[in-house]
Structures are given as C-alpha cells and as structure tokens.
C-alpha cells in the first residue's frame, strides 16, 4: 500500500508517458459542481466529496496498480439549482465536449481506461451520454461513468428509507458526510425541506411517479424547496458521516481493485 498521492498532474512527462503504456492503465476523473447546497453546506460540496473519497480510495490500492487521478472538474451541469445564488452551471454541450477533449487525449497517450467519478446527481445522465459518445470516438478506450453514491450496499443500513428515496440534496447523507470530511465548512442550519416536506411547493405525486426513478420529473429545486435542501438534514451527525465515509471508501476500494485486477471492460482493439 502507499500513502503517496496518485495525481496524474504531479507526474513529469516521461513518467506520464510510462504510466500510460502500462497494462491496464487507468485514469480516474473526479466530477463535482459549484452549486447551492442549502444554507448549511458549501457550494463545492460535490467536488469535495468526489476528490476526498477518491483520494482515500486510491491510497488503499496496491502500489503497483497503474491508476492515477486527474484534476477535479469543479464546474458542472447544474441548471436545476440556478434560482439559488452561488450556483455556476456550465451548459450540457460544454461538459460533453470537455469529456470528449480530455478523453481523446487520454486515449492518444495510450491509457486504456477512463473512469468518470461523479458526485453530482444532476449530471449522471449527461456523463453517461458523454461516455458513450467518447467510446464511439475512441474505441480502444474503455469509459466508465460512475456515481459516488450508486450501488453502495451499506447505505440501506445507515440511512432511513425516506432519505434514501427523497433525500436528494443536502439532506441527512450529505450534511453528515461533510461533518466528517470538513466540519468547519458546515453551518448551523438543519433544514427539512422538499418533497413531502413543503406542502406549499409540491403535492404528493400520483402513484408510480416520483422525483427520480422509473417515471421521473425534470424538477427544478425551487419547485420543491425554499431552503435549497431536498430532504431532512435535522439528524445529521459526524458519527453518521464517518460511517458513510467508510462505507463509500470500502465500496470503491473493492470495485477498483476488482477492475484493476481484470481485463474488463473489453474494447475494440
């Protein structure tokens, strides 16, 4: 194991060239956003989560694994939050083109995989589309669009069902995780707002419909919330945040080790 940072931008050009030529060479690109996260969390919440969790994950990987982290993409696609001050959103085509530009250059260098490590829920679909388009342009590059919170088994034991389903933004999970990672950045407010919370904003959706899921709605935050929070942050604690942090790290360590020890996914070489 190593505690040295696996930052691609810390390499010299000869080392970068060498890194790209290793069997299974992989770049991981953290994606966040600069957007409102209620009155209690910083604008850079998603970016901080992506970068810090990924850094801790990479520290636990065997030293000989050829995997490096690109500099974080702080500005993201956040139109749903633009009615709240502080949000700076880039257009969908800009983010798509950015993924294409960086991915094509990574492929030309010789890297075999590019993992998009995203912590902003509002750009999941866009990054999936960007990954598919990049794969068409660079058939030798495996592209993996991932979401920080997706598929983590321990979350069902740590978060109540209503927060897992409706705590979409700056609620119990995000406020607690920030209390663990950067408590000095957390304000004193603990809003309870959003769907099923602010009846002035949204009636209960009809059966089968929801904010996200099988039959979603392209909601904007001010459709749902006065505070910018969509969920319940009232019971947020540092101890819950630490448990979430450990769960996320353990999950992604397992997934990255599994990936790096494999020849998956296949590419058109």
A few lines on this structure:
With 269 residues, the protein is of the alpha/beta class. Helices cover 38% and strands 9% of the residues.
CATH architecture: 3-Layer(aba) Sandwich
Low-confidence stretches at least 5 residues in length (pLDDT < 50)?
none
CATH fold type: Rossmann fold
The whole-number mean of residue pLDDT values reads: 94
- The total count of helices amounts to 9
The fraction of residues in strands falls at: 5-15%
Radius of gyration: 19 Å
Could you say which structural class the secondary elements and strand pairing correspond to? alpha/beta
- Total domain units: 1
Shape: globular
Total E-strand runs: 6
The CATH H-level superfamily is Creatininase
Distance between the termini: 32 Å
Strand order of the largest sheet: 2-1-3-4
Could you spell the SSE succession in H and E letters?
Answer: HEHEHEHEHHHEHEH
Helix content: 25-40%
What is the CATH class designation? Answer: Alpha Beta
Task: Give a written overview of the molecule.
The protein is an alpha/beta fold and 269 residues long. It has a single domain (25-258), classed as Rossmann fold. The chain is built from 9 helices and 6 strands, in the order H-E-H-E-H-E-H-E-H-H-H-E-H-E-H. Strands 2-1-3-4 form a 4-stranded parallel sheet. It has a two-stranded antiparallel ribbon with strand order 5-6. Helix 4 (124-137) links the parallel strand 3 and strand 4. The radius of gyration is 19 Å and the shape is globular. It starts with 12 loop residues before the first helix and ends in a 9-residue tail after the last helix. The mean pLDDT is 94.
């Amino acid at each position: 194991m190593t505690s040295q940072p696996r930052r691609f931008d810390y390499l010299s050009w000869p080392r970068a060239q060498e890194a790209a030529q290793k069997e299974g060479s992989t770049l991981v690109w953290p994606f966040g956003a600069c957007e409102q996260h209620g009155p209690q969390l910083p604008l850079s919440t998603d970016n901080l989560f992506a970068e810090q969790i990924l850094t801790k994950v990479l520290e636990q990987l065997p030293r000989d694994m050829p995997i490096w982290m690109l500099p974080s993409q702080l500005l993201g696609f956040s139109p749903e939050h633009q009615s709240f001050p502080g949000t700076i959103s880039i257009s969908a085509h800009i983010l798509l083109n950015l993924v294409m530009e960086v991915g094509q250059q990574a492929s030309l260098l010789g890297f075999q995989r590019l993992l998009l490590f995203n912590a902003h829920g509002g750009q999941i679909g866009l990054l999936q589309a960007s990954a598919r388009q990049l794969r068409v342009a660079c058939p030798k590059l495996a592209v993996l669009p991932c979401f920080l919170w997706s598929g983590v088994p321990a979350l069902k034991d740590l978060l109540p069902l209503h927060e897992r389903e409706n705590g979409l933004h700056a609620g119990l999970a995000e406020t607690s995780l920030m209390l663990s990672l950067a408590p000095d950045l957390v304000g004193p407010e603990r809003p309870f707002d959003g769907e099923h919370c602010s009846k002035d904003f949204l009636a209960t959706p009809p059966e089968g419909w929801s904010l996200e899921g099988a039959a979603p709605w392209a909601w904007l935050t001010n459709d749902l919330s006065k505070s910018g929070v969509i969920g319940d942050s009232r019971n947020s604690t540092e101890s819950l945040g630490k448990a979430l942090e450990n769960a996320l790290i353990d999950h992604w360590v397992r997934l990255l080790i599994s990936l790096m020890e494999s020849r998956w996914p296949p590419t058109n070489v």
